[in-house]
Write a structure and sequence with these properties.
GO terms for molecular function: transmembrane transporter activity. With about 475 residues, this protein is mainly alpha-helical. The chain has 21 helices and no strands. It has a single domain (about 10-460), classed as Up-down Bundle (Amino acid/polyamine transporter I), CATH 1.20.1740. Helix 3 packs across helix 17 (about 380-395). It is globular, with a radius of gyration of 22 Å.
Length: about 475
């Protein structure tokens, strides 16, 4: 039975926005301040354009291959399971690296609130990862209800920062002019590496692309939803960073691991620092919870395809969640959170993302069908995406390139060992069905700006209804 196309363009836009915006904004700005100074604001625009291009490639791939697994599914369909595995393998590594990043960020922001000894920092990271692993094992539906209640807590500090910061810009523009002068104090030598770190903040669409078979009028809705969704995210990111670099000199941001706390302090003193810290703690927790589930889902999809250890496809008898892979991911994340640093982990994550994105762009060239559908830009987008991915790969550090190549090559013996294994068909059919994909995506509650858009839309509709009822009496 074919599913009805029940998702509108607005629904798809909401999903895209919710999949991207998370805690990244609390982290990335300070990392680039010492590389390019206030010129970071320009790179946020460029990174947004890069991400939008690749997001469109993913959207079109999901139209031709409407099943879960993301790039793993797209590349497998276009070429074969070997290339699909390498794509999914590198994607899983990239998503896995986000978990220790958020554990480190959570500890940094907690440190701004409560002084921690080195031993206490390790304990906080362990407790942070263990608690989120447990939440995902018990079930994301219950966690989603909590996330709904906390959405405003996560988003309000950033909206407050934007509104108050723009107020300062209007009243005292000289403050912003001084902090933005010179715009490029350090030259362009580190611009490409800074762009890599900023691009990471826009990532997320690769885990949130819905099967296009559920979208009304997909030929028009998909590109429009991607365009509008990425525009909303870009405006939100740009306003936040415009205010951040305008309120605080880049030299101070470079010295801080908690840039939003520094900006909050500049606006409201200690109260502002507290507000931003609390917002960051909630936001980082929510993002890591969502990311942990996304990476586990990808590993699970590969396991039921016979390409990962069979244990990764083991589902908890009571809670119905892939608990084995969640526990394994948690253990790896804890180790990395204590041996890695934010910039290095993010850069290595982007290298793996860029590799999986590169293969996905090649996949669209094979998958596209000029006779059946006419999706705008499906000829030029994969070529542009290939150029962007090659640029990102080239812009990572030499260390990242060497280790990244070794990690990707490590996937080959893993594939050779597991590829002869038989598919777990009953699990695969259940997991990959469009009904299951749709249900899981709609149950995802880590939506941030998407929830706000839903509220605005509801209010707008009620006003329209109210006006329509008054018209006959005029």
């Amino acid at each position: 039975m074919e599913l009805q196309r029940g998702l509108s363009q607005f629904d798809l836009t909401n999903i895209i926005v919710g999949a991207i915006v998370g805690a990244d904004i609390y982290i990335a700005s300070a990392l680039t301040a010492g590389l390019v100074g206030p010129f970071s604001i320009v790179l946020w625009v460029v990174a947004g354009l890069f991400a939008a291009t690749i997001a469109m490639v993913f959207a079109y791939c999901s139209y031709y291959v409407p099943r879960v697994g993301g790039p793993f599914a797209y590349v497998s369909e276009a070429f074969d399971d070997f290339y699909g595995f390498l794509t999914g393998w590198s994607m899983w590594i990239a998503e896995l690296l986000a978990l220790p990043v958020f554990a480190i960020a959570f500890t940094n922001y907690l440190q701004a609130l409560i002084p921690l000894t080195p031993a206490a920092e390790v304990a906080v990271r362990a407790l942070f990862i263990a608690s989120l692993t447990l939440v995902n094992i018990v079930g994301v539906r219950a966690a989603g209800k909590v996330n709904d209640a906390l959405t405003l807590i996560k988003l309000s500090p950033l909206l407050l920062l934007i509104v108050a910061g723009l107020g300062v810009f209007i009243v005292r523009p000289e403050t912003f002019v001084a902090n933005y002068t010179p715009l490029l104090p350090l030259g362009l030598e580190n611009a490409s590496h800074a762009l890599v770190l900023i691009f990471w903040a826009y990532a997320g669409f690769e885990m949130g692309t819905l099967p296009a078979g559920e979208v009304q009028d997909p030929q028009k809705a998909i590109p429009r939803a991607i365009t509008s969704g990425m525009l909303i995210v870009s405006v939100f990111y740009l306003l936040t960073n415009f205010v951040l670099f305008g309120l605080v000199n880049w030299t101070l941001l470079d010295q801080s691991t908690v840039p939003l706390v520094v900006a909050g302090t500049a606006l409201f003193g200690s109260a502002g620092a507290l507000i931003m810290t609390v917002g960051a703690l909630f936001s980082v927790s929510g993002s890591d919870e969502s990311g942990m589930l996304g990476s586990a889902r990808l590993a699970y999809a590969m396991a039921i395809d016979g390409l990962f250890p069979r244990a990764f496809a083991r589902v908890h008898p009571r809670y119905g969640t892939p608990y084995v892979v969640l526990i394994v991911q948690g253990a790896i994340a804890f180790v990395l959170s204590n041996v890695g640093n934010l910039s290095g982990l993010i850069s290595f994550a982007v290298l793996n993302l860029a590799f999986s994105f590169l293969l996905t762009c090649f996949a669209l060239i094979v998958l596209r069908s000029d006779g059946d559908v006419k999706l705008r830009g499906q000829h030029i987008l994969p070529l542009a995406g290939i150029a962007i991915c090659l640029f990102l790969l080239f812009s990572t550090t030499t260390f990242d390139k060497v280790i990244g190549l070794l990690v990707i090559l490590t996937g080959i013996p893993i594939y050779l060992y597991y590829s002869p294994k038989e598919d777990i068909y009953h699990l695969k059919d259940l997991f990959l069905s469009e009904e299951a994909v749709l249900r899981r995506r709609l149950e995802a509650k880590e939506t941030y700006l998407a929830n706000l858009l839903g509220i605005i839309r509801t209010v707008y509709r009620r006003f329209r209804r109210s006006d329509s009822r008054k018209l006959p009496g005029r």
